[in-house]
Amino acid sequence: MIDKRELLLAVALSVVAAIAAGSVVQFGTPVDRALPFLAVVVVLLFSSRTSDGGRQPTTDSRQPAAVGHRLSVLGIVIPLLLICEVVIADERARLLAIAIVMAVAFALSSFRAHPLVVTVLAVLVLRWIPFSDVVVWRELIVLVFAGAIALLSRNVLIAVLAALFAPTWPIKMTIVILFAVLFLCGAAASAAGRRRTIDAMVLLLVIAFFPWSGLMARGWRFFIHPPRQAERVPVRYPLRRGDSVMLDIPEQFDALIVSGANVQKMPPGTLLGTIEPHAIPIRIGDVSDWGFMRRDQFFASRNIYPRDPAGQIRDYGWKCWIDGAGRVKLPAKIGAIRISANPKLPHDAVLQVEAIEMRMP
Amino acid sequence: MTLALSIGIVLAILPLVFFRGRELGRALGIEVAIYAFAAAVAVFARALGVADIDIELAAAVVFALQLAAIGIQIQQAKEIRNLAMRFAIAAALVYAVVIPIQLRAPIDGDEPYYLLLTESMVRDHDVDLTNQYRAIAHSDLGRPDLVPQQGDPVGHHGEQYSRHEPFLSLLMVPGYLLFGVPGAIATILLFGVLLARSLARWMEDEGISDQTIRTVMPLFLFGPPIVFYAARVWPEVPAAFCFVEAIRGVRQRRMQRWLPALFALAMLKLRFVLLGVMLLGAIAMGKSRKLALGTIAVLLVPMLVVWWISGNLLNVHTWRELLPVAPKPYFVGLSGLMLDGAAGMLFQAPFYLLGVFALVRWRAMPEGFRLGAVASSFYLFTLLPRAEWHGGWSPPLRYIVVMMPVLALGAAKLYELSASAKVWLVPIAAWTLGVTAHAMAAPWSLFHIANGENATGEWLSSMFHSDFSRLFPSYIRLNTAAIIAAMLMSVALIAVVILSRIDGEGPPAAGAFVAASFTIATALFFHCGRTPGDRIEFEDAHVMHNGGALYPYQYQVARFLYRGGWILKKGESVSFLAHRGKHLLFYASPEQVVIDVGGHAYALGAAPAYGTTFIEVPAEGRATLTCVDGSINLDRMERRDE
Fold first, then answer.
1. Which residues on B lie below 8 Å from A313 (Cβ)?
2. Rg for chain B (alpha carbons), in Å?
3. pLDDT digits (tens, 9 = 90+) for B470-495
4. B520 and B543 fall within a common domain
5. How far apart are CA B195 and CA B239, in angstroms?
6. Under an 8 A CB cutoff, do A76 and B460 touch?
7. Which residue stretches of chain B have pLDDT < 50?
8. Which residue of chain B comes nearest to A69, CA vs CA?
9. ipTM surpassing 0.85, yes or no?
10. What are phi and psi of B546, to 5 degrees?
11. Single residue among B475, B502, B529 that ends a domain in this structure
């Protein structure tokens, strides 16, 4: 994959890149703090080269001129990462810009670098940020399987997607899923690795949103049906089974923002409560458990992404999730309403009335 | 929307100009993929709550990226026949959309004057602009504020002439008659197209390989400064075309090519006669004395035209401008044209620095490059010591646009000869793409007051309220970075000579060097930029101005001849990052003035010309200077610890 001289250059460049990136970090999000790591990932991507026995253009990539070219691209990519960190003050814009630079680096190197290297680095970027939250032995299992899939299928995209959607809990299920993918890849190995441009495009898109990788993996419907946000007045009223509360809804407000607590095991359609006077039901599916999309709760949960989502994105990286708040529409000029929790709910389940929301402009 | 659609159509047609079969499919596929990715990012970014996106800049980046992607594929294509014609068509397509992009900002600098002259020729059939200025509000130019330029010739009967030679205006007459102002600008576009064809042919004539031409031509055509000058009303691009044709004619010994080219070149602008004078030597060496005399006569025609209009053989110039002066202005002008942050090749069009490096490998360069370089030498010699070497109120590199084809030829040859040059081309191309995208998004940023700052420095300075501008070399307002940059450039030129002997061994190391140096430079840049500088220029963007006014005002003619400053009156203040300790304040004041710095009051005597005084900054970090009484023009403040 790499000769001795290039290895030395890669190590030296990695050190330089990590120190330079570390020196410019000025914000506290996990992605900002991981900037030195991202810089090293970029160096490794451009230092690696393929060795797949002639299926890829190895001859050119081993020539000194090609190596020089590859390394000189780092002179653009790493400074771009540094510039994004320093000059973009808006948090989400900054993280998106960093992610786009990383995505372009991955897409460019996916044509030339060894699939194993690209896969391992992609999985690290997608699942190992924030580092403090990584359960190393579980993630190592995912990493090993992803690497094996990449080696067997010679297709980075399949390996990365398998790793992205593999749950951390329960690990036995993860192993079963990844084994199945591995088996399928083994069976279809001859067909894999043909549509490299399309694969690179999909990889580009996946990595371009790595600061929200947890959301991609567990709440992919967010990208199709993102929550809308209008002005809200917080209510924050928890209702246990049989509890009820009266609310006056001003004329310009037309929706109730509701979520559940300890309801993640309930299937869609389960009644959580009702709104009077029109007996409007609040069910799982309209709303979900507030934290059901968290990494350690997601696989065990039976909730689904709310039909009219109203949650907010929380955290970054693999830890990123969106709360399960949903929007329940109210008839116009409804005035006073009574919200009652279903008396048949389990004793620890809570219906959370979070806010009332103004009409969308 | 119409503009976006036109850009989309041009970008869709562009691959058809160069590719066929699978290569065409791939090019179109990549184009669609870039659009799809940009659209996906736009949609998802909105969903993710990313608010802080500059739509115009994002669109310009996508446009530049598409051009870059096509450029890369042109380079990697197996074979493209009839390159010159294809590049000419590509230039026509791209410049056609660059014109409306550029016209989002009003035409500026000398541009409206050339157009006013065209308007006068069309409507009055003369070059007297008196009535044009009188009825300027009804002109098509969109510049109702236009008044005669300082030093414009005035006739015996009060006629108001333009200081600009009328040939370019005359050339624009047909376009103006057909389509008005856009039609006139399309005339320049036409010369851009001719330049594209001519340069590609010239490169072929000089033995540059097809692959190299395919590599460098997109950088030349779609990168600064050509892409901007081809879409604006300046004589530089027509002159560059004529210069290339003249050199080609001389090289091919075809009088019917070089004679009209030389004539047109001299007619476009009197200063271009200096290019012709040097070419004359080559003509005289190869041909009879009779022919050389004929050429001199051709070069004299424009001078006679100018004399007929303005009554002066040299228009607004004097013979004295041709005489050598002290060495310092030559150093400043030469270094500035190469390295200045606002007006030098390094930051505005780095591709052409390869052409400068090609000069040190003189013997290996094609004869056309050497002839072009020699022909440019006298012109350059007279340009360098001028206070306006940077071009004044114009897009960057104005005065050397005419030499860009020569530098491009040198760059192309160096690219062929040197593996290191190939490695350097990657960051050069990326920077070029960035400069192009920025100027597309903000065409008004092409014009910058010559105050020692540049667009990037100003932007970062105002963002961090810290002096980033001082880190860019400035030869307009000489700073430490400029001295360091000049020394590094000298070292680099020597290194090129040495490395030329061992080239071919070093690409991996060169690539690593490029990567490491850019990474370290970026980190150091941001570290140093956020610390106080030793010298505070009070008019700069990093200084927070609480009242006061810029001196001299922004549109002062020949503003670069003044010591810039910031005028404070009683109660107004400025705040800036500074080191703790003693500083020397340079100021001017018509009266006694009292200022306050960090709680210390200083009574300063009147200094109608500039004076100095020591002041103490009590603490490291942000300091505030307040005008307590009187009024003061603050020039600068320099740290003096001794």
1. 48-49
2. 26
3. 999 999 999 999 999 999 999 999 88
4. no
5. 9
6. no
7. 505
8. B423
9. yes
10. -100, 80
11. B529
